[in-house]
Amino acid sequence: MKTKRNYKKEYAKYHGTAAYRKRRSQRVLARRKLEKLGRVRKGDGKDVDHRRALSKGGTNNLKNLRVVPRRTNRRKDNN
pTM for this structure? Predict the structure, then answer.
């Protein structure tokens, strides 16, 4: 029998931490920046990819951002 996920506990332990919220905020700001430029739209199946990952010291500079299909970005590894 499967146990139910405790989403509140999961959020408190991982997704609610200050470091995670900061990274999520940076990802959201990057997408908004490219939405304003017309390069992505809500529901288009595209992701905003950081050429150099935020976790590796990358920024939200336009030179570091690119639009890729969602599947490509989700398979990508930060190594």
Answer: 0.77
